[in-house]
Design goal:
The chain is α/β, with parallel strands linked by helices and about 300 residues long. The chain has helices at about 15-20, 40-50, 70-95, 125-140, 160-170, 185-200, 220-230, 265-270, 275-290; strands at about 5-10, 25-30, 55-60, 95-100, 145-150, 150-155, 175, 180, 185, 210, 220, 240-245. The structure holds NADPH dihydro-nicotinamide-adenine-dinucleotide phosphate, dtdp-4-keto-L-rhamnose (TDO) and magnesium ion. Keywords: NADP, Oxidoreductase.
């Protein structure tokens, strides 16, 4: 059976990877900012209200963590009010609404991976705005899934992998935070999980709720940076100096422990934590081939 998705956020990391999954079994209509601006929640809701798609997926968000500190009202419209309005429109049609959220809803305390039942306490405006979205999506009352993921990266877009490769080419040494730990997650793996959940809903096997889904093993940003440079064969790797968070001040504090326990999504949907090292191989291959002009 062909599954049809209406996707908001076609130009983002997850949006691009969702489009790549389209094919005979998966029809994807995706909307960019010009087609659906989440700064206008009612316009987005109206778009949902007239869709013929089986499932709506929101991959759009205000993701500039530091910028959100000085722009919280706008971030909260995009990350809170808009998903809420879209989810209510989906609920009115009886179609499932899939939404993506973040590890930054947690305060980063403790050392064990966070469960969906653990208390949330965001440290900054981005996390607060995303939490608002989670709550409004649940309150809409329709079939829904909120996928909390972390440290999303891809061969395209704005992410830590591309930042490291850019800085690594410019400098001999990098100072990287070593006391924030999490699960790097490839956008392609997030997209595949969203499609699996959408298919489950279409087949009557959907389970509503919040689900954690992040890559394994858990590492620090410093360890992730080293793994990136190990695979960037075209670069002379920079020296990496491990630093504490205090040595890298940012407008928004980041959680120290943002590891996510992904047991619930395994039980509900049979989805296992992806090994980010395998996914990173594919991303580095894509970046290497782009450099070599393969496929250009
Ligand atoms: N990046 C990460 O590390 C993580 C992301 N997430 C969540 O995953 C989801 C996908 O993130 P990711 O793919 O990384 O996002 P990106 O930062 O790569 O892209 C954001 C997307 O949202 C769109 N967008 C932003 N503002 C608006 C707006 N006002 N109207 C319409 N579209 C808008 C952007 O469009 P444009 O190109 O026009 O700017 C772009 O398509 C988000 O919900 C995010 O919160 C969760 C954990 C980690
Ligand atoms: C560039 C750089 C960053 N860092 C640190 C800062 C920060 O703690 C960490 C990662 O930097 P970033 O700016 O990529 O991180 P950030 O934008 O906070 O990434 C987050 O984005 C949002 C959207 C999410 O939802 C989160 O899951 C998470 O992926 O690395 C260094 O220590 N040295 C450096 O040279
Ligand atoms: Mg960032």
């Amino acid at each position: 059976m062909t599954l049809s998705l209406l996707v908001f956020g076609s130009t983002g990391q997850v949006g691009v990877e969702l489009r790549r999954l389209g094919g005979p079994d998966l029809a994807i209509e995706s909307l960019d900012r010009a087609a659906a601006d989440l700064a206008d929640p009612e316009a987005c809701a109206a778009r949902v209200a007239r869709t013929g798609a089986d499932v709506v997926v929101n991959a759009a968000a205000y993701t500039a963590v530091d910028r959100a500190e000085g722009d919280e009202a706008a971030a909260t419209v995009v990350n809170g009010a808009a998903p809420g309005a879209m989810a209510r429109a989906a609920a009115a049609r009886g179609i499932p609404f899939l939404h993506v959220s973040t590890d930054y809803v947690f305060d980063g305390g403790g050392a064990r991976p966070w469960r969906e039942t653990d208390p949330v306490a965001p440290l900054g405006a981005y996390g607060r705005s995303k939490l608002e979205g989670e709550r409004r999506v649940a309150e809409a009352g329709g079939p829904h899934a909120v996928l909390r993921t972390a440290w999303v990266h891809a061969a395209h877009g704005s992410n830590f992998v591309r930042t490291m490769l850019r800085l690594g080419a410019e400098r001999d040494a990098l100072r990287i935070v070593d006391d924030q730990r999490g699960g790097p997650t490839a956008a392609a793996d997030v997209a595949a999980a969203l499609v699996a959940i959408a298919r489950a809903f279409a087949e009557g096997r959907g389970v509503s709720g919040v689900f954690h889904y992040a890559g394994a093993p858990t590492v620090s940003w410093r360890e992730f940076a080293e793994a990136i440079f190990e695979r960037a064969h075209w670069l002379a790797p920079p020296r990496i100096e491990p630093i504490p968070s205090e040595a890298y001040p940012t407008p928004a504090p980041r959680p120290r422990n943002s590891a996510l326990d992904c047991g619930r999504i395994g039980a509900a949907y049979g989805l296992r934590q992806p090994d980010w090292r395998c996914s990173l191989e594919a991303i580095m291959k894509e970046l290497g081939e782009a450099r070599d002009g393969v496929g250009a």
